[in-house]
Amino acid sequence: MVTFFQQVVNGLQLGLVYALIALGYTMVYGIIKLINFAHGDVFMVGAFMGYIGFTFVKLPWPVALVMALITCAVIGVINERLVYRPLRYAAKISALISAIGASFFIEYFTSLNFVFGPNYISYTPPIKEITWIIGGVRITDIQVVILVTVAAFLALLQLLIFRTKLGSAMRTVSFDHDAARLMGVDVDRTISFTFFVGSGLAGIGGVLFGFAYPEIWTFLGVMTGLKAFIAAVLGGIGIIPGAVLGALIMGQVEIMTAAYISSQARDAVAFAILIIVLLIRPSGILGRNEPEKI
Amino acid sequence: MKRMKWVALLLVVMFVFSVALSGCAPKTASNVIKIGLIVPLTGNVATFGQSIQNAFNLEIKQAGGTVAGYTIQTVVADDQNTANQATAVAIKLCTQDKVSAIVGSATSLTTIPISVVCEQYHVPFVTPTATNVKVTMDPTRKIYAFRACFIDPFQGLAGATFDYNYLHAKTAAAMFDETNAYSSGLKDAYVQAFTKLGGKVVAQMAYTTTDTDFSADLTQIAKLNPDILYLPDYYQKVSLIGGQARNLGVKSIFMGGDGWDSSDLSFAVMNGSYFTNHYSADDPSPTIQAWVSAYKAAYGSVPDALATLGADATLIVLQGVRDAQSTDPTKIKDAIQNLNGFQGITAKFTFGPDGNPVNKPAVVLQINGPAKKYNFITEVAPS
Question: Is the ipTM beyond the 0.90 threshold?
Fold first, then answer.
């Protein structure tokens, strides 16, 4: 029984890491109905910025966290400005392909020797690892930090979207660009802001990922990003609490599959979930089934 | 139509230029020998490639840049420790650069595809450290393939023998990368040997190269509490697994193979663990001590096993050229196969019919975390 609860904690850690990325995916999708495939790579840049911050620049880790947040937020905005905005009124598929292109560009550009380089990097996280044993179950301080961060982000995002003027602008844009513009909403600025927040979250997610799994490389965002994307779809893409819910489920499913079925099957199960969700409930767990507006 | 003409003209100009350029390319002088080096200079085992390249350069420099009257011209290629890239650069070295022999690569993952290419183009290669059986035999002998190291069945046996006889371990668990021939091959050898000795393997867990979360498997292992956790993978991955294992309360002794040998291993996490390796820098043998001091003088650090076997592989190739007195790859291959007791650094090399050096022992090293070094524990000789 203790082992089972330990596995639940393991799954929780993995799920929370996915949640950090899934939040950004779902935010951008909610506003402009675009799957930002470069999101996982922005997350990777965050992991590297954190590593560079506290290893080379010797910043205290909260400062490194802020540095990663700002860098990634800026990258997100630039990415939107250069790659997505020119295609905003083009066919959906063009924007999607463009997103995949942006993703590959970030992966391979950062692999160059004068950027981050192509090597795996493992390092010692700046937080001293403390393990508490509660009823036989081991919990680390890093897990607590990640849990608090995800909870805080979820609350802040809900506040931002439902309680602020910018939030109502975001919601308006998500309904209808043209109508929003007629109502005096600066659509371009609102979308840029969405990317700023979403990518900043990915940056923080990257740094915290590095604390939990201190082995990073420039293709880190591919698999992790895909899993987070599945999580967002599972919870209902475009719905903020859905991303966290989906991510927590994904984490548990992966760990439980590895623990009680086979560790070889974990990825197969994860992707099978994506297919099943898309077949049975395409709008996700928290999504409303409504016909696509044309 | 007009555009077509321009394209045609452009093509003609390009053709003329290419002919002109190939005309003025330096003719391969008869007194030059090209030797290729394929190693992972980037990617997940970059320190392996850098060590081997250091040793390769040092040995060629010590030979005075010449061998058997030929001036040595080196062609270096990075395989990034991926099979695709290894195949591509091996084909380039064999067909475009037309090297006479190749040193490399570091891991079985890349050396197995290289062996296929070399067999096809009849170019001999000596791998310093690729320990998987399939490098030289798959399933029949690849006659152009040689190695300067022992093979995994022996390495697994040596590790298991040490654990069972020296550490008195009765139970073991293994975690391995199922997508990597080295890792899964070494795991199989260890499990087989440990079981045969009378030990019990309580769990075998597979993962893939890109996995970063091992908590599910490690929680199970913590519960089973085996004496040994065998981790036959490269330094990066075992550092990551080791850290997570200790956090989840795994108390087993970590045991591994030659893939651990790197300055980038997490010495703090892996403190007290053991691994099998090709040589110990503390070995008092005069050839080894001369090599260690030469390497230290050149690069300022103690050579790891990758560097040392890289030097052995380079010396074997050079001796092959000397014996063959030729740049003909096939003659060099025959000369290497016929070496008899050639004094390298780690051993006297004689190659068996399988392309492997006969009678190479393994050493067991223990990781000394605070001092960031390895302590020599014992030597395991092939029976």
Answer: no
Instruction: Pick the residue of A6, A9, A264 with the most B CBs within 10 A to test the interface with B by mutation.
Output: A6
Residue B213 included in any domain: yes
Q: Which residues pair with A131 in a beta bridge?
A: A140
Q: What is the pLDDT of residues B2-15, one digit of tens each?
A: 566 666 666 566 65
Number of helices and strands in chain A (H, E): 11, 4
The DSSP line for B82-111 is -HHHHHHHHHHHHHTS--SEEEE-SSHHHH
Report the length, in residues, of chain A: 294
Assess contact for B176 and B255: CB atoms under 8 A.
no
Asked whether the beta carbons of residue B217 and residue A217 sit closer than 8 angstroms, the reply is: no
CATH of the domain at B131: 3.40.50.2300
pLDDT at B50: 92
Domains recognised in chain A with CATH numbers = 2-280 (1.10.3470)
A138 touches chain B (CB under 8 A): yes
d(CA A61, CA A265): 36
B178: containing domain: 153-277+364-380
Whole-number Å distance between alpha carbons of A48 and A123? 11
Q: Please say if the pLDDT value at position B373 is more than 70.
A: yes
Q: Is B242 helix (H, G, I), strand (E, B) or coil?
A: helix
- Verify cis geometry, omega within 30 degrees of 0, for the bond prior to B232: no
Could you tell me the CA-to-CA distances from B247 to A130, A132, B271 in Å, in that order?
9, 10, 14
Q: Which tokens go with B171?
A: 């139970």
Terminal Cα distance for chain A, rounded: 52
